[in-house]
Amino acid sequence: MITFGLGWGRAAVVCFAAVSVACLAGGGSASQAFAQAPTQQAPTQQASTQTVEAPDKTGLLAAASKLGRALAEKRYGELITGMPPRLLPKISERSGIALDVLRPALEAQMTTIMAESSIDSFIVDGTKAEFKALPNGKIYALLPTEVRMTVQGSKGVSSGHTIGIIDDGMWYLVRLAAEQAAIFRDAYPEYADIEVPKDKLEFTK
């Protein structure tokens, strides 16, 4: 079994982790200038990023909408197959599990985990996205995100950010937390040193 944890009691942790690992391909292409930006290895010093003017948000907004719908409709297979291209192979490499085994295993585990919970609301606000550029010119976005869930009768809320990246001309969304962040940065080393504000996690009766 592949388990992602965040450090709470198991039921609460794995439910929020299941949402955190969700990554989905965008519904439209990024602008041509961004799509052609070259990928480089992460610099040895902390990456110096700068805020840039917002590009056409069509693809990014489509990705956010698609992610929310897939979670609401419990279509977890789309979350797995729609991961950024380098991510699932990296999970396979680190876990030692073949890709053709890993995909259905992750979907089955997410289905089992999420059966213990309900997503009350999932908001990825693409309209308030902040766009930044890596030193190599590659654009990424930080999207304010709020997840409200009920797990075994307890209410939980996670407030933070989803990162939007461009790979092969398409927007992808990634929720970074704990193990997920390490895997993402291993798969996409050019983003290894970007700063993403930490999530605020609260669980109440």
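Next protein, fold it too.
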Amino acid sequence: MSAQSPELKKQVFFRRRLVFLAAMLFAALVLVNLGKLAVAGVHALTSGASKQQQTAASASASAAGVSEAAEDGLVPDCTANDLSVQIDMPKDSFSQQEGLHLLVKTEYYGQTRCSLKTSTDNRTLLVRLGNLDFYNSQNCKVEDAGVVLSKSEVSTQEVTWNMRANGDDHCSSGQLATPGYYTTQLVFASPAGLATNSVIFRVV
């Protein structure tokens, strides 16, 4: 075998160098593309997770909005035909010192939830002595959010009276009820026509 000339050796060396450089460039391009694909994959996963979180947050906010809407009065008012309101007297006589204590039982027969306002501007306690109105709670402003009733629900609330007639402040600051027999009843402004039974009690 004849020895290669110096010129031929140079050509071979440069060819090998070019092939090596081309291979390195190709490898670098492959790595760059793989890196781009990896970044794109991570971005897609992150974006998907973010969208899921946003969807979950939106659903949670929507549910909270429905709950707040119900609290803000979007539950419809009860109708008189779906309600029964009765006074339950724990006893039939009360002393002047202890005052009157009534249990008001409200039973709901409707199919969907409804709201019943029980503040004094809607639910009035009337106390009569014979044919005279001795006490009327309508002007005694007592705020009450009321009750939200569900199907077949029975709600019981206590109603009290300090045995005093309406005074100069139009509330219960007048004369103390004297011993005798009185009649009491609760009447609702809304829904119209809703009222409890009328009961007799004795002041001793």
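About the second fold: The helical segments are 6-74.
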